[in-house]
Amino acid sequence: MLPEIHTAIPGPRSRELAGKLAKYEVREVTFLSDDFPIFWERAEGTNVWDVDGNRFLDFTSAFAVSGLGHSSPVVRKPLLEQAGKLLHAMGDVHPAGVKADLCEALSRVTFERWNAGTGKTILCNSGSEAVEAALKTSLLHSGKPGVIYFSGAYHGLGYGALEAGGLPYFRDPFRSQLAKWGVQVPYPSCYRCPCGRKEGFRLEGEPFPNCATTCLEEISAQILAAIRQREIGCIIVEPIQGRGGEVVPPRDFLTMLRRICDAEKVLLVLDEIYTGFNRTGKLFACEHFDVIPDIICLGKALTGGFPLAACVGRADIMDAWPASQGEALHTSTMLGNPLGCAMAVAAIAEHSKNETQAQAQEAGRRLKTALGGLRSPFIGDVRGAGTMLGVELVKGDGAPFGKLAGAIMVRGLQEGLILLGGGPDGNVLSFSPPFAISDAEVAYLTGKLQAYFEQLPQTLA
Ligand SMILES: Cc1ncc(COP(=O)(O)O)c(C=O)c1O
């Protein structure tokens, strides 16, 4: 449904709650200003209602979690049924039955579907933890501590995930406490090519650019040099970068990484926490390239709204972990929480249906076409796959125009649009709506955006 706004934004009740947070929450967590935030009360489908009764249209799926729609009955029903029976169990001692069902479902939907044997899982409470479980696996499997990661990468904010993260904003304040096992290499962003080439060309209808091989050769040389100089156990990579600004690599990038990993006996860890579960128009983004990872990290849409994530790897690799002798080496109090497991089992089944994938693809096509129709000298690039789309905003000289993205988010909120910015400079409008987004809702978005592009830049000089 289209937005319906009855109060100033934020409304009086949101302002009151912001006051409470200002007093009781650590300052760095929630951005509080005269314009932000609204406090959510309920959500359904593509809509969110705030505590002041205003209705918003969500183009973020709340950080790419609610692809199936907010409060989707697909996950709400099993959640409520499970809540009526069992809220919590003893994850690594006496687990809930549904934990076993979820581990099986994760194997079926990944490695078994790819005809690559069985997948074995470590369940986690956040994406960051799933990444760290993968990094621990890499060390146990190879005995080598080194990890190759990419500029612009976002894998979460725990200290392990942070050491493999390529966004200075998150790393820099904590650099002195980070262990130094990571080696950063450039991510092949075609819009801001690390080799200084012009944008890679895209085939009609193809989300992936396919430039000449210069940048891949350069990146490959840097990776091989790192492997020669350091003890490297794995390469960790997002098939399309999310928080880094919806950056789509050239089509041959993942294939190249797979080839290097095979030749050098290094594990390929794909972080599909953002891209997984139809977000890019395939069940998993690696399926665009026919690349099978050694380990895949999943989260976000895995449950559609519960803090549960997973590190799933090929069984022979995951068996590098020793059998439990009664004390798990990697676990947590809430591991395999039955509520999250019940939601995830149902979400996986829904995401596996052809209809869900078709709906995600169709929504992505419509949104990308509409965003591509926006006209402004401040739009540098429109990119992405499926419903994971970014519009990069630039000034006349091509420099990032983060202020414009910020102003659009504020103005959009006032008119009922929930939008997010991303990229190292905050200048990429990032879209990841629920798959059921309608034509009218997309038209509302682009109508407003076009007006903002015409009105806002001159106010920001
Ligand atoms: C690709 C990717 N990996 C990992 C994470 C971290 O997940 P979490 O915030 O659940 O720790 C995110 C979160 O945005 C992500 O986009």
**Could you say what the CATH architecture of the largest domain is?**
3-Layer(aba) Sandwich
The number of helices is 14
The bound ligands are: pyridoxal-5'-phosphate
- Annotated CATH topology of the largest domain: Aspartate Aminotransferase, domain 2
What is the assigned CATH homologous superfamily of the largest domain?
A: Type I PLP-dependent aspartate aminotransferase-like (Major domain)
Describe this structure as you would to a colleague:
By secondary structure, the protein is an alpha/beta fold. The chain has two domains: 12-71 and 355-460, Aspartate Aminotransferase, domain 1 (Alpha-Beta Complex), CATH 3.90.1150.10; 76-352, Type I PLP-dependent aspartate aminotransferase-like (Major domain) (Aspartate Aminotransferase, domain 2, 3-Layer(aba) Sandwich), CATH 3.40.640.10. The protein is 36% helix and 15% strand. It contains 14 helices and 15 strands. α3 packs antiparallel against α11, α4 (97-112) runs parallel beside α11 and α12 runs parallel beside α14. The longest helix has 19 residues, at 354-372. It is globular. It binds pyridoxal-5'-phosphate. Pyridoxal-5'-phosphate (PLP) binds at residues 63, 126-128, 131, 154-156, 238, 242-243, 271, 273-274, 299, 309.
Key terms for this structure?
461 residues; alpha/beta; Aspartate Aminotransferase, domain 1; Aspartate Aminotransferase, domain 2; 2 domains; seven-stranded mixed sheet; 15 strands; 36% helix; globular; binds pyridoxal-5'-phosphate
What is the fold's blueprint, element by element?
Blueprint: H1 12-24, E1 40-44, E2 47-50, E3 55-58, H2 61-64, H3 73-83, H4 97-112, E4 119-124, H5 127-142, E5 146-150, H6 159-163, H7 168-171, E6 182-185, H8 214-229, E7 232-237, H9 253-264, E8 267-271, E9 295-298, E10 309-314, H10 315-318, H11 338-351, H12 354-372, E11 379-385, E12 388-393, H13 402-414, E13 417-418, E14 420-422, E15 428-431, H14 439-455
Parallel strand pairs: 3-13, 5-6, 5-7, 7-8, 8-9
Antiparallel strand pairs: 1-2, 2-3, 4-10, 9-10, 11-12, 12-15, 14-15
This protein binds pyridoxal-5'-phosphate (PLP).
